[in-house]
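Continuing the batch. This is chain 6 of the set; chains 1 through 5 are on the previous pages. Same settings as before, nothing changed between runs. Recording input and output for traceability.
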Amino acid sequence: IQTAPKDLQTRKMIWQTPCRRSSPRLACNVLKRASGWTGARGHDITAESLDWGDRPKIILQSYAPTGFDVQNSVKKIDDTEISDGVVHMNGSIIAFPFGCFLWNVQSARDVTVESLSAPILLHRPKLEYLFVGCNRQGTADAVPLDEMDRIQKALRPHGMVIEQLGLSNAIGTFNILNAEDRQVAVALVLDPETGE
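Output for chain 6:
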């Protein structure tokens, strides 16, 4: 009799184990074993997904007053090359799952249907989500509400969810949805006047 590898046997046992309401500790242990989680803090749940495949996905790492740090936007040619694969892009950007481009927008007031529609609608496969990130969300320096309404009315018929977020929230949301293999884009506005 040939048996399945131990790891596969464990997975079958875990998923066939009934969850009991009277024993939350048992349910928690079952989930820990199923996910491979060891309980250590700082575990990156997206790393494996973002680095998988022939084309590593874009990871937005951080931003500074001069621009955004983007990982995996340039492919290493030589494996002996010493590089962390991070490129600092000076200015506003539009990021897609496998590419990141500079975007000719100087402030949140420059974000319009016209500045977004061409790159967003030309992307294939079709996008599910578009996030517009700027650091002045909810203030007079954010994308004007009437312009956000125009953008949503223009792009929603294409099956897209459009939302304006703060820069750090837009970056984090993009990274998580990209790791989940969603068709997502983020337009990040770096406003030099705010110094943020």
